[in-house]
């Protein structure tokens, strides 16, 4: 079985800005699992454990995506939810293109047996997962620079493999589909 998901990768400039915010978050009390900046992305759809035989049909389905490239802005760090967060993330702003793309991915993968998403798509970049909450985590998130981390053009989506290790996830690109 292969643990997979569909994602939008981020350019190095945005990952570098995210790294700066993550360094501020490290100063908080409690316990955070900081995401490796090389792994920062926007998850379009988590597929979970799939049979290796299903990888090529997934890629073929994704090749049917019909969307133009688009601009998106990765905003500053926030706690989610704000009172007792489970994650610290950056919201992503666009003109609705990423949500439309996520719906299309959902539509294309449903015939392969993947359940439709029940929650509305909210594009975001996870900077850290809260393992043990302390109010200073939200204070530190609020202390990160308030300007956006950056704007980029989304020109493709990727099918990624995720291997869980004690030191964190290792991601590998299985396929890239141009928009």
Summary, kept brief:
The chain has 179 residues and is α+β, with helices and mostly antiparallel strands. It has four helices and nine strands.
Report on this structure.
The chain is an alpha+beta fold. It has one domain (2-178): Alpha-Beta Complex (Cyclic Phosphodiesterase, Chain: A), CATH 3.90.1140.10. Helices cover 24% and strands 42% of the residues. It is built from four helices and nine strands; from the N terminus they run E-H-E-E-H-E-E-H-E-H-E-E-E. The protein has helices at 12-25, 55-62, 97-109, 136-143, and strands at residues 2-9, 31-34, 41-50, 70-80, 87-93, 124-132, 150-154, 156-165, 168-178. Strands 2-6-5-4-7 form a five-stranded antiparallel beta sheet. A four-stranded antiparallel beta sheet has the order 3-1-8-9, covered by helices on one side. The longest helix has 14 residues, at 12-25. The chain is globular and about 45 Å long. The two termini are 28 Å apart. The mean pLDDT is 94.
Helix content: 10-25%
Largest sheet: 5 strands, antiparallel
Q: Which value, in Å, is the CA radius of gyration? A: 16 Å
CATH architecture: Alpha-Beta Complex
Uncertain regions spanning at least 5 consecutive residues:
none
Give the oligomeric state. single chain
* SSE pattern, N- to C-terminal: EHEEHEEHEHEEE
Provide the residue-averaged pLDDT: 94
Number of domains: 1
Total number of strands: 9
Name of the CATH homologous superfamily: Cyclic phosphodiesterase
CATH top level?
Answer: Alpha Beta
Shape, per Cα inertia axes: globular
Named CATH topology = Cyclic Phosphodiesterase, Chain: A
Q: Which class of secondary structure composition applies to the elements?
A: alpha+beta
List the strand order in the largest sheet.
Answer: 2-6-5-4-7
């Amino acid at each position: 079985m292969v643990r997979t998901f569909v994602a939008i990768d981020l350019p190095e400039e945005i990952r570098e800005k995210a790294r700066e915010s993550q360094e501020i978050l490290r100063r908080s009390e409690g316990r955070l699992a900081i995401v490796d900046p090389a792994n920062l992305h926007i998850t379009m759809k988590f597929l979970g454990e799939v049979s290796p035989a299903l990888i090529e049909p997934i890629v073929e389905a994704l090749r049917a995506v019909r969307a133009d490239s688009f601009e998106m802005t990765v905003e500053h760090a926030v706690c989610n939810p704000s009172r007792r967060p489970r994650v610290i993330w950056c919201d992503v702003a666009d003109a609705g293109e990423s949500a439309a793309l996520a719906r299309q991915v959902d539509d294309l993968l449903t015939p392969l047996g993947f359940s439709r998403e029940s929650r509305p798509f909210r594009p975001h970049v996870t900077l850290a997962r809260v393992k043990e909450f302390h109010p200073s985590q939200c204070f530190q998130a609020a202390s990160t620079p308030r300007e956006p981390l950056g704007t980029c053009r989304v020109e493709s989506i990727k099918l990624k493999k995720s291997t869980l290790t004690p030191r964190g996830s290792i991601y590998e690109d299985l396929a890239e589909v141009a928009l």
